Amino acid sequence: MLPLLRLRFRRPARQILIALAVALIVLAAAPGQVWSARQLPSGARFGQMTAFQYPLLAIGKNTFRMAPGAKIYNHQNLIIMPAAMPPKAAVLYKLDTAGEISGIWLLTAEEAARLRPVTTQPAAPAPKPEQVKDDPARLGR
After folding, report:
1. Average pLDDT for residues 66-76, to the nearest whole number?
2. Does 128 reside within a domain?
3. What number of CA atoms fall less than 13 Å from residue 59's CA on the CB side?
4. Are 62 and 19 members of one domain?
5. Is residue 2 in some structural domain?
6. 76 near 84, Cβ under 8 Å?
7. Whether 26 and 53 share a structural domain
8. CA 54 centroid distance within chain
9. Coil, helix or strand for 123?
10. CA atoms within a 13 Å half-sphere pointing along the CA-CB vector of 20
11. pLDDT tens for each residue of 77-132
């Protein structure tokens, strides 16, 4: 038997060891979101990717080229190959200085809803002022 297992601890020391073991188990069983909250880049742009044919992709009405070494991150924040890219998805993307895409993050539905720019309804046109005719009674004459 291992020497450590043969040691006899006094009651307070045993309680401390049991409490530490329980704390480690609780921390290990914590939800994954606590441990691996996805960090999305702050300077990235939101867009709806409508077509993808490596190395070109269409986001909204614009067509972009992927830069050499560009990375594509899936919903679990893992790097995927271009062949695994879905043809349409909500994405965050970063452009390099040459205007090519250097990074793409595929978004979940919750992330897309949170990051989608708020589209404001266009303001209603101001009512046109009433046409005033040259009526002497209205003009105070």
Report:
1. 94
2. no
3. 21
4. no
5. no
6. no
7. no
8. 22
9. coil
10. 6
11. 999 999 999 989 999 999 999 999 999 999 999 999 988 876 545 555 655 555 55
C-alpha span between 17 and 7 (Å, rounded) = 13
Tokens of 52: 């993808």
CB 74 within 8 A of CB 81: no
Question: Which residue type, as a one-letter code, is found at position 5?
Answer: L
How far, in Å, CA of 59 to CA of 51, rounded? 7
Q: 């404001």: which residue's tokens?
A: 120
Does 21 have pLDDT greater than 80? no
Closest to 101 in 3D by CA, of 87, 91, 86: 91
pLDDT for 133 equals 54
Question: Residue 66: which H helix or E strand, with range?
Answer: strand 62-73
What does residue 140 show for φ and ψ, rounded to 5 degrees?
A: 85, 20
Q: Please tell me whether residue 68 adopts helix, strand or coil conformation.
A: strand
Q: What is the mean pLDDT of residues 18-28?
A: 72
Residue 15 lies in a domain: yes
CA distance 104 to 77: 10
What residues make up the domain containing 14? 10-35
Instruction: For residues 80 and 106, state if they share a domain.
Output: yes
pLDDT mean over 23-43: 69
